[in-house]
Please model this.
Amino acid sequence: MAEMQPAEIQVMDRDDGQTMLSGYDSLFVKQTKKGCLQEIMGCEATNEFKIYPSKDQANGTETFYSLEESTCFMRICCKNQRSFTQTIWGGTKDARGPVVMTLKKDWSCPVAPCTCCCIPAITYMGADGLSLGSADIPMFLCLPKILVKDAVGTQQYTVQMPSCFGGICVDPFAEGCCNCKIPFYIYPPGSSGDKNQAIGKIIKLWRGMGTEVFTDAASFDLQFPPGIDEPTKARLLGSTMFINMLFFEKGNE
Model:
C-alpha cells in the first residue's frame, strides 16, 4: 500500500488541476510586471502570469498562477528564442494548488521559422509527466500559423492573426478600429484565416503606454471554442503563453 500511494496522489493532482478548467468558457491571462527594472536595463526577466476568469475580475484573487524557469544566460542572450520550462498551477501565487500543466520549450533558431529546422515549438505535459500535446510554427510565406496538436500529434487547431486578400496580409479591422487589440483567432485545420471561420480567440489587449513601452507585461483575453474538454483548454492556455513568448517578448522588435 505504501508503494501505491505516491502514484495515486500524482494522478489525483493531474485530474484536479485540469478539472479546474472545466467551468470556464474564457480566461484573462495577465502577465505581471515582474523584473521591469531588469527589462529597462536590457535583461529579460522570467515570465510570471496571473490568470482570472475575466478581465472584470482581474483586480481580485487569481484563479491560476504560472511561473517560468529559465537560465539568466538564456534570457540575456537568446531573448524570445530561449529554452524554458513553465508551470501552471490552480490557485494563487502564495497558495498554489494542483498542477494544471507544464510547458517546455527548447531553444529555437533566431531566423526560424523561415528555415526548415530549429523551428519554434513547445510541448505540454500534465502533472504526471505524460504528454498533453504540443504547438509549433511551420515554415510560412506570408503570415505565421501556430499548429496546436493533441497528445498523439494530430492537429486540432490553427491559431493565427485573421487574414485578408487570400491570406496575404493581416486583416486590420477584424476587431474593429482604433482599439489597440492584436487578435489571434482559433480556427479548425484547413481554414483560410477569414475571421468568419474563427471558433475561438486569443486577443492581446492594450495595457497603457507605460506598461507597453517599458515592460513586456502583456494581457490576453482567451475565448475557448465551445464544447471542448479540459486537456484541449490546457493546450490553448499554453498556446497563449507561446504566443506571448514568440511575438511580445524582447528580441522580437
User: Anything to note?
Assistant: Residues 1-14 have pLDDT under 50 and may be disordered. The CA atoms of residues 80 and 252 lie 7 Å apart. Residues 230-247 form the longest helix (18 residues). The longest strand covers residues 96-105.
